[in-house]
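Reviewers asked in the last cycle whether our approach scales beyond single polypeptides. To address this, we selected a multi-component target totalling 686 residues and predicted its structure end to end. The input consisted of the following lines:
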Amino acid sequence: MMDLPTLLQILDSTIRLGTPLLLACLAGLFSERAGIFDIGLEGKMLAAAFLSAAVAFVTGSVWLGLVAGIVASLLMSAIHGLASITFRGNQLISGVAINFLASGLTVLLGQYWFALGGRTPSLEGAARFAPITLPFAEELRGVPVLGPVYRELISGHTALVYVALLAVPASWWLLYRTRFGLRLRAVGENPAAVDTAGVSVVGIRYAAVAICGLLTGLAGAYLACSLSAGFVKEMTAGRGYIALAALIFAKWRPWQALGATMLFGLLEAVANRYQSLNLWGLPLPVQFMQALPYILTVIILAGFVGKAIPPRAGGQPYVKER
Amino acid sequence: MERMPAWADALLVPLISLAVAFAISSGVILAIGENPWEALKIMVTGALGSSYGWGYTLYYATNFIFTGLAVAVAFHASLFNIGGEGQATLGGLGVALACLFVPWPHWSLALIGAAAMGAAFGAAWAAVPAWLQARRGSHIVITTIMFNFIAASLLNYVLVNVLRPTGSMDPATARFPGATSLPGIGDMLTAVGIPFAKTTPANVTLFIALGACFLVWALIWRTRLGYEIRAFGKSEKAAVYAGISPVRITMLAMLISGALAGLMAINNVMGEAERLVLNSVEGAGFIGIAVALMGRSHPFGVLLAALLFGFLYQGGAELALWTSIPRELITVIQALVILFTGALDNMVRQPVEALFLRARKGAK
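The resulting structure, written as C-alpha cells, was:
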C-alpha cells in the first residue's frame, strides 16, 4: 500500500504533467468544434515552447517569453487558417506540414541564435515561472491529511497551472452560455445554417483557430518555462497527439477534457516513477504504460466504450453556395 | 466547366508549388546568415558529385519510394495513411525475425523470405486501423497516428526485453547472419565493369523498389481492383451504387499500403543496418506523405519525388558536415513542400487556372 507522501507526489506530478495536455486539449476543442481538424497541436506547442524560452532567456522576463510563445503559435495557426479556411485545402495535410515546420524551424533558429545544438540556454530566476504559494499553505501544515494535501497538491504550482484549470469552466461558459459559443458549435455541425443566418462562417472559424493558437501558446510556454527550464529539441515529445487523443476521449467536451488529460497525466506520472508495475500479479512493462493513452484512444474510437462522434462538419472546407 | 489542360494540372502546378517552397527555403537559409547558392552547390556536390554521394542518395530514395507508394495507394482510395512510420517499424520487426531465425542458404532466398515477412507485418499493422475505419467508422488518420506510437513502444519492449542478446546493453538485435547480407549497388556495378563506390548502403533493394513502382502503376490503372480503388476514392456513394464494397476496398487498399511501407525494411534493416535498432525508420514514413503529395500519387511522380528527397537527405547531411546549417533544414523544406503541394494547393492552382482560362478566352 502506498503512503500519503508518495501518493501526493504522484498526484502533484499528475497535475504538472496534465497541465500542458489540458491546455492543448482545450485548444483542439475550440478548433475542432468549429469544424477545423487540427493535428498540428504538436507543432504549435513546439513553436511556442521554443520562442517563449528564447525570448525569456534574452529578456530575462518570463512574461515577455509567454507573449512571444503565444505569437509563435498564433503564426502557426494563421498558416493553418489560411490553408484550411481561405484556400479550402486539406486540414490534415496542413497540420502535418505545421508539425514538420515547427520541428525544423525551432532547431534551425535555435542553432543560429544560441549555437547549442538546438537547445536554448537554461532559464533561471525571473526567466522562469515561479511557484505560487496559496494563502494559509504554511498555517494549515499541521492539519492531518488536509494540510499536506492543500500544501503539496493544491498550492505551490506556477501561474499557468491555475490558468489551465480556470480555462475549463471558462471554455464551458464560452461554448455553452454565449452567443459566440453557440455559433462556433453550429459552424462545426452545419455551417450552411450559420451562413443562412447571416453570420460569417469564415470569421467564426478564424476566431476558433486563433483561440486554439492562444491556448497552444500557453501550453508551449508552460512546457519550456515551467515544467522544464528551457527549450530542448522535440521537447513536446508527442504531447500534441496525446492531447488529441484526450480530446476524443473527452468526446469534444471541456469538463471531460479535464478528466481525460489528468488521467493521461497520471499515466505519465506513474510511468515516470515506476519502471515496471505489478498489477494483481500481472507484470506491466513501462512501455505498456507509455502506450496506454494511445491504446485507450483506439478502443474509444472503435466505439467499444461509448461512441465518440466528432463535429459533423469537421474536416470539410465550407464552400458558400452561389 | 472549363478546365486547364492536363499537362498544366499534372506538371505546371506542382512545379510552381515546388518553386515557391524552395524560394521560401532559400529565404530561411538567408535569414540564418548563410548563402543559399553556396548551400545548393554543397548539396549537389555532396549528393550527386560522386558515386559515393549517389550511393547514399539512391539508398534514401529507395526508402522514400516504398513509403511514398504506401501513402499514394491509400490516397487513391481517399484514405490518409499517416501510419507509414509504424508500419515500416513493424516491417523491420518482421524482416529481423526472418533474418535471425531462419537459416537461409543464400541471400536471394533470404531476400524473398524477409520481404514477405516485412510486407506481412506492415500489412498486419495497417489492418487494425483499416478494419476500424471500415467497420466502426473510426477516423483512420487518428488511429494510424496512435498506431505509430504503439509501434514505437512495442518495438522498444521487444528490443529491450526479448530480442536483445544477453549481455548487450544496446537495445538492438544481434547482427544478422552473413548469408542474409544483400549485395550492394557498388559491388554489382563494379562486377559489370562500372566503377562505383563500395561503401554506400545502396543495395539490390533499389530494383525491388523500381519493380514496386511498376506494379503499383499496373495495379491502379490496369486492374479491376485498381479501378475499384479509384472509383471508391472519387466518390464512395457512386462506388457503392456500382456494387463496390467499401469495407473490401478500404481493407485491401490499406493492406497494400501497409505492405509497401513494411517492405521498406528490407532496405534499411536488412540492406543497411543488418540488425534491428530503435527508431530504424528515422521519419521515412512521414516523408512518404510529402513524396506522395509531390508525385500526385502517381508511381512515376513518386519515383521522381523520392529521388528529390533522397538528394535533399544526402545533401542535407553534407551541408551539416561542411557548414553550420543543421540537418533540420531538410525538415523545413519537407514541411514547405507538404504545405505548398498539399494544403495550399489551391493558392497556386486558382491563379494558374484563371490565367489559362483568360488566355483561352483571348484566343477565341
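Chain A touches chain B through 48 residues (CB under 8 Å). We regard this as preliminary and will revisit it once experimental data from Aim 1 are available.
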